[in-house]
Specification:
Number of helices: 19
Low-confidence stretches: none
Shape: globular
Structural class: alpha/beta
Largest sheet: 8 strands, parallel
Number of strands: 16
Strand content: 5-15%
Oligomer: single chain
Mean pLDDT: 96
Radius of gyration: 22 Å
Helix content: 40-55%
Distance between the termini: 10 Å
Length: 528
C-alpha cells in the first residue's frame, strides 16, 4: 500500500494504472469539499435509519407520514427531462468493467446504467478503473483486448445515455480519508464522475430509505453544480425505490429532488430484502415464501409497482421497471425459449401497467424489451400522459406479504444457500456481476437469499412437507451445497477460489443472532 496526500485528502492504496488521470489534485479537493460539507448529515441519517427500524420492530407497522401530507396533496411537478432521458424504453445495466462498458455502449439500449454499486465489487482497482473507463467512453477512446486476443471497440453511433449508479449512503471508501475519516463511497463515485464529466451528469440513486436522504442528495447536487460552474438543475437523478420505507415516501422523495429528478425505478430484489430486514421479527404474516416464487403479480408487489407508476406520472417523472437478469445460453435453445418467454411476459406486464421503460442485464434481451415497450408506446417516447388515476394503494396493500400465493420449501432454502455463497465467492474475487444458473446476479440477489435464510431460521419456519429450519439444518445444507459446487468446478478450482471465506461470510450474515444490515459491510473487510 502507498500513502499519498493532498492538502485535505489522503489516499492509502496500491497503485492503479492511469489513476493520476482521475485522481487529480483538483478532483481530490472536490471530494474533500463534499466530505467536509456533507459527512455529518450522512452520519445523522444513518443513525436515523436505526431509529426507524427500532420503531418498526416495536409497532410491526409502517404508514404514510402525516407530517408530509401537504406534499402528497400539493400541486407540483418535477423538472422536464433533458432530451437524452425522454425515451427510456430499454435500459442496459452492468458494471463499469472495460469490456462490459463496450458491450453496453454497443447494446442498442436507450440508457446504460453504469454501476458502481451492486454489480461492482468495490476494490480500489474497480473503483478507479471504472472511472477511467467512463472517461474513455465519453472521449471515444474505450477499447479492450482480451487475454485471448479478442478485440472489443465501440461500433455503434447511436449510443445510450450513460447514467451512473454510485454506492449507497451506508458504504465508506476506506482508501480515501479526510482528517482520518473515510469518505463516503457514494460521494467518491458521484464526485469523481461529475468532476470529470459535468456535461453528462445523470445518476441513479440506490438504497434510499427516506425523503431526508433524497434531500441530502439534492443538497450535494446543488453544491456540486455551483462548484463546477454548471447550470442549476443540470444533474438529473432517478431514484431506486428498493426499500419498503422509501415506498411510503415516493412523493416526498420526488419533491425533495424535484429540480433534479428524472424518475423512480422498481428495484425488486432489494425491495424484498428490505421487507425482510424491516419486518424480520414482526410475526408470521411477514414470512416471505421462496424468493423465486415472489413474482410481480404478488399482491404486495403489484401494489408497490402501481403506486410507483401513478406517483411518477402524476408528478411528470419517469417510471422504470425492474431487472430481467436472464443470460441467454448459446448451447441450450430450449432454456432460451422458456426464459425469453418469461422475460417477454414480464416486460409486457410492465409496459401495460404504465412503466416508461425497463432494465435488462444482457444485450440479447435489449430487442425483447424494446419490442414489448414499443408495442405499447408506438411512436411516443414514453407514456407520462397515462396517469393511472385508477390506482388507490393503502399501507395495508404495501405490507400484504401474507397474500403471496407461495410456500417456504427445501428447494428454496437450498437455492438461497447455493446462490448466496456462489455470489459472495465471486464478489470476494472482485467480480460483482456474476453469471449463476443462467442469471446475471448482483449483490441484491445475495442479500435477499441470506436474509430469507435468516428470517426462516429465526422464525422457526417449517418447510412445506419438510422439517423446521434450524441452524443444524442450514449448516448441513451449506455442507451439501458446497460439496455440489466443489464437484461442479473441480477440486483445484475450488481450492484456488475463495469458497471457504464465502461460507464464513454467508454464515455470519445468515445465522448470527444479530441481523447484519448489509452483507457487503463485513465482506468489504476481505477485499483490497
Amino acid at each position: 500500500m502507498s500513502t499519498e496526500s493532498s492538502p485535505q485528502i489522503t489516499i492509502d492504496a496500491y497503485p492503479v494504472d492511469r489513476a493520476d488521470e482521475v485522481l487529480t489534485a483538483e478532483a481530490l479537493e472536490f471530494l474533500a469539499a463534499l466530505h467536509l460539507r456533507f459527512e455529518a448529515t450522512r452520519r445523522e441519517l444513518l443513525t436515523a435509519r436505526s431509529r426507524r427500524r427500532a420503531e418498526i420492530a416495536d409497532t410491526g407497522r409502517l404508514d404514510f407520514l402525516p407530517e408530509t401530507a401537504a406534499v402528497r396533496g400539493g400541486d407540483w411537478r418535477v423538472a422536464e427531462a433533458p432530451p437524452a432521458l425522454r425515451d427510456r424504453r430499454v435500459e442496459m445495466t452492468g458494471p463499469t468493467e472495460r469490456k462490459m462498458t463496450i458491450n453496453a455502449l454497443n447494446s442498442g439500449a436507450k440508457v446504460w446504467l453504469a454501476d458502481f454499486e451492486d454489480a461492482t465489487t468495490p476494490t480500489w482497482h474497480n473503483v478507479v478503473a471504472g472511472q477511467i473507463n467512463l472517461l474513455d467512453a465519453r472521449t471515444g477512446k474505450v477499447e479492450y483486448t482480451s487475454p485471448e486476443g479478442k478485440q472489443y471497440r465501440v461500433t455503434e453511433t447511436d449510443l445510450p445515455a450513460v447514467v451512473v449508479r454510485p454506492r449507497g449512503w451506508h458504504l465508506d471508501e476506506r482508501h480515501l480519508s479526510v482528517a482520518g475519516e473515510p469518505v463516503a463511497g457514494a460521494l467518491v463515485d458521484f464526485g469523481l464522475y461529475f468532476f470529470h464529466n459535468p456535461s453528462v451528469p445523470y445518476f441513479y440513486l440506490p438504497k434510499l430509505e427516506s425523503h431526508l436522504e433524497a434531500r441530502l442528495w439534492n443538497d450535494v447536487f446543488g453544491y456540486a453544480e455551483q462548484a463546477r460552474g454548471v447550470a442549476h438543475g443540470s444533474i438529473r437523478a432517478t431514484v431506486l425505490i428498493e426499500t419498503i420505507t422509501a415506498a411510503f415516501e415516493m412523493e416526498e422523495i420526488l419533491y425533495e429532488l424535484r429540480e433534479h429528478a428524472s424518475g423512480l425505478n422498481a428495484g425488486r430484489w432489494d425491495y424484498l430484502f428490505s421487507m425482510i430486514k424491516n419486518f424480520r421479527d414482526a410475526g408470521p404474516e411477514y414470512i416471505l415464501p421462496d424468493r423465486n416464487a415472489v413474482t410481480m403479480r404478488a399482491p404486495f408487489m403489484r401494489a408497490y409497482t402501481e403506486l410507483l407508476v401513478s406517483t411518477c406520472h402524476r408528478r411528470g417523472a419517469f417510471a422504470i421497471g425492474g431487472m430481467a437478469a436472464f443470460i441467454p445460453s448459446r448451447r441450450d435453445p430450449e432454456v432460451n425459449e422458456q426464459a425469453i418467454g418469461k422475460v417477454r411476459d414480464d416486460k409486457q406486464l410492465e409496459a401495460q401497467a404504465g412503466f416508461d421503460g425497463s432494465w435488462v442485464a444482457h444485450p440479447d434481451l435489449v430487442p425483447v424489451c424494446d419490442e414489448e415497450f414499443s408495442a405499447v408506446l408506438g411512436e411516443r417516447p414514453n407514456q407520462l400522459d397515462r396517469l393511472r388515476d385508477d390506482v388507490a394503494v393503502t399501507a395495508g396493500d404495501l405490507l400484504n406479504v401474507a397474500g403471496t400465493p407461495a410456500e417456504c420449501t427445501e428447494d428454496g432454502l437450498r437455492n438461497d444457500v447455493s446462490v448466496g455463497i456462489q455470489y459472495i465467492e465471486s464478489w470476494l474475487r472482485g467480480t460483482g456481476a456474476a453469471g449463476i444458473n443462467n442469471m446475471m446476479e448482483d449483490a441484491a440477489t445475495a442479500e435477499i437469499a441470506r436474509s430469507q435464510v435468516w428470517q426462516w431460521l429465526h422464525a422457526g419456519t417449517t418447510l412445506e412437507g419438510g422439517p423446521e429450519v434450524t441452524e443444524e439444518l442450514v449448516r448441513s445444507v451449506i455442507d451439501e451445497e458446497l460439496g455440489k459446487i466443489r464437484g461442479a468446478v473441480g477440486a483445484q478450482a475450488y481450492d484456488e477460489g475463495r469458497w471457504e471465506q464465502a461460507r464464513e461470510v454467508f454464515e455470519q450474515v445468515a445465522l448470527a443472532d444479530d441481523f447484519v444490515d448489509f452483507l457487503t459491510l463485513p465482506a468489504y473487510q476481505l477485499i483490497d
